[in-house]
Amino acid sequence: MKKILVTGGAGFVGSHLCEKLLELGNHILCIDNYITGNKKNIETLLQNPHFEYKKHDITVPLFVEVDEIYHLACPASPIHYQNDAVQTIKTAVLGSINMLDLAKKIQKPILQASTSEVYGDPQEHPQNESYWGHVNPIGTRACYDEGKRCAETLFFDYHRQHKVTIKVARIFNTYGPNMAIHDGRVISNFITQALQNKPITIYGDGSQTRCFCFINDLITGLISFMKKPKKTTGPINLGNPHEISILELAKKIIKLTQSSSTINYKVLPDNDPKKRMPNIELAKKSLKWEPSTHLDEGLIKTITYFQNII
Ligand code: NAD
Ligand code: UDP
């Protein structure tokens, strides 16, 4: 039985990852400071004797003996990461240094939950791992984007300099059960608004695009990546290449929820990327991974989750 550390394990992605890793017969140590996570996400896991939870802020060093580290702790929704921008960048940078120091000390592999935001408002479409990105370093999204870019630099420097085994996954927009109602991300906002027949808030004219990956697909990708030999460092894009505009997404959610919501156009936030789509050829080839959940199928599961908690 492996002992696995999951930072940010009480969050949306982390809670699913802990659940799956437990199911696969591992012992999990979940650490989180609950800044955007929720104890409800791990409530059922707490009954399992192989699930340990420790409240800890990763900007403070930590020493634990584990076999693998999945490093996810960081707020991911624009409203949350901009709410305390300095804390976000501290979490991304100091938190990564602390976790990399741990990986170096115990000589175990560490996976970084990086993001498509490292590509910024991309000028290449779709985005390949070789693209260096287009990020405004002083904009309101920079605390997250540049924090995650710096974290990637740290991962590769610890790998080159200290021979730490690293796995850098660039995660594209992911959705599913356990997203927080007030998370502020587009799918949770649209579904909660539609279910309550409230106006759907579209920022800008809704022509911007995103690609949405269902959580179960992402989790399979992360676990496959960790299993790969030392030389597979990434970065590797993990996402669903099905591209959709935000206006089309709103219409789809209205239809699936049979809602009477209208659309309320609001100001587009600064530096909001106009389009985003992963090239996943590398993940297909090296991880033998690709997402299999159709957007409608994943949305229906997510709608059911929100129906139960609203
Ligand atoms: P989330 O906000 O639901 O989860 C993040 C978790 O980290 C929360 O439980 C939060 O309390 C915890 N956390 C934050 N700062 C911490 C700190 N200083 N110390 C300890 N715990 C801390 O977000 P998520 O969607 O689950 O994202 C998880 C990871 O995946 C993040 O690193 C994010 O950047 C990355 N990611 C997510 C997406 C996505 O679409 N969900 C896309 C790209 C990358
Ligand atoms: N968005 C929107 N209405 C909302 C929330 C988000 O129109 O209520 C838009 C947002 O401006 C962006 C897209 O949806 O263009 C995806 O936003 P999200 O915050 O989910 O992710 P990110 O911008 O980080 O990809």
Quick recap:
Helices cover 38% and strands 17% of the residues. It is built from 9 helices and 13 strands. Helix 5 (186-195) packs parallel to helix 7 (246-257) and helix 7 crosses helix 9.
Spatial shape: globular
CATH fold-level label: Rossmann fold
**C-alpha termini separation:** 38 Å
- On the 0-100 scale, what is the average pLDDT? 97
CATH-derived architecture: 3-Layer(aba) Sandwich
**Helix fraction by DSSP (H/I, runs of at least 4):** 25-40%
Run of helices and strands = EHEEEHHEHEEHEEEHEEHEHH
Give the names of the bound compounds: nicotinamide-adenine-dinucleotide, uridine-5'-diphosphate
> How many helix segments?
9
CATH homolog superfamily:
NAD(P)-binding Rossmann-like Domain
In the CATH scheme, the class would be Alpha Beta
Structural class based on helices, strands and sheet pairing: alpha/beta
State the low-pLDDT regions, or none.
none
Beta content: 15-25%
Describe the structure.
The chain is of the alpha/beta class and 310 residues long. The protein has one domain: NAD(P)-binding Rossmann-like Domain (Rossmann fold), CATH 3.40.50. 38% of the residues lie in helices and 17% in strands. The strands form 4 sheets. Strands 3-2-1-4-5-6-11 form a 7-stranded parallel beta sheet, with helices on both faces. Strand 1 (3-7), helix 1 (12-23) and strand 2 form a beta-alpha-beta unit. Helix 5 packs across helix 9 (295-309). The longest helix is centred in the N-terminal third of the chain and has 22 residues, at 85-106. The chain binds nicotinamide-adenine-dinucleotide and uridine-5'-diphosphate.
